Description:
This protein has 396 residues and is α+β, with helices and mostly antiparallel strands.
Amino acid sequence: MKNIAKLTVLLIFTGILFIGTDLHADTRPVRLTFLAVENQSQDNRQDYLAGLIEGVLLYDLTRQDNLEVVERASLENVLREQELQLSSLVNNYDSAVRVGKILGADYLLKGTYVSLGNEIVVTITIVDVTTAKVAAYTGRGVKENFLHALAEKVVKNLTGKTVKLQSSEYERSIITLKDEQPGTVILYCNRPNAEVYLDGQFAGYTPVDPKEPFNIPDVKPGKHGVRVYAGKDWGILQLPEIRCLDWTDEIEVMAGKSLVLRAEVRMFYRLLSELGELLNERGRLEEGGPDKYTNRHELRFTDRQGKEIPVVLEISVIREKSGTAAEGVLSCDGKKNPCRFVCDDGKYDKFELNMEKVRLIIVLNAKYKYKEFQYKIERTDITPDIWKEDRADTGS
């Protein structure tokens, strides 16, 4: 009896151990969805690295027995059903978590990278679908092993297990496929025989016919500076300080692509004349018509120090017994100045009212039965010779 009792106790105890082990053992692999790898560099020539980085990481992750990667086809099917784009998941964790739950994923992964000189910085972000908590790992290098090192960190985070994925055979560089096919700059310019410079180097002269382009072939992909020197009296205005400059542009040439530019240059004194004239109105009081013209103009401009200046003109032109009168109030930057000006019949006369930053000019012509008038407002901080003083002449 004692032996039977001992055997019974032993069987019961063994069963408890077996049951306990079965209850706590979790052999289900961790299920994850790899969203995408995004190039956050300004250089589109590094786009090819996205597929390479994703390929290396997926290769490492799919080799782990305790990890299961959701197939991309399953992800795309869910995106279609939910009417979502992959880009929205990459930038919106709420949508990503929702899709992850539909897919039955435990974690979501996404990668980003930037190019820093001759190295690549890669960041892998892990989102827990259940808690929405985020963890990120960053690696920097040029050889493939730094990607395998990142994969080791991801596996450790997801499973708690330490694996070795780096190898001496992975010491090869991943920056080997950069697209350096040259591009072309196509420049149209309204000024013939203007000098064209690329990155400070003389490239040639613009054609006589402005409809014909000036081509700069074999331009290395990347960012460049283009300048057009059209002569000391031609160019563009830099506002608000009103400096006269050559036409310039900062461009980015894509590998194997053509970039079209249009350089519009003008004579400086014409640009200044247009900029300096804020208002120019003409009219007449016809015989037998109304004896009074009244108007109000609200203007504003930015002075050479970058301050916005409001200008208001209230003006009336009146036919009187012995002549024609103009009267009104000119306001500039909060200051007001009233004026009245009379031109006798049979005469032509001109009146000026000068304020700190603007000038009002009124012209009355009372020589005829109808009475002509003109009034205009000009900036006083712009003079006809200002381009000679401030010309930034960088041409040769």
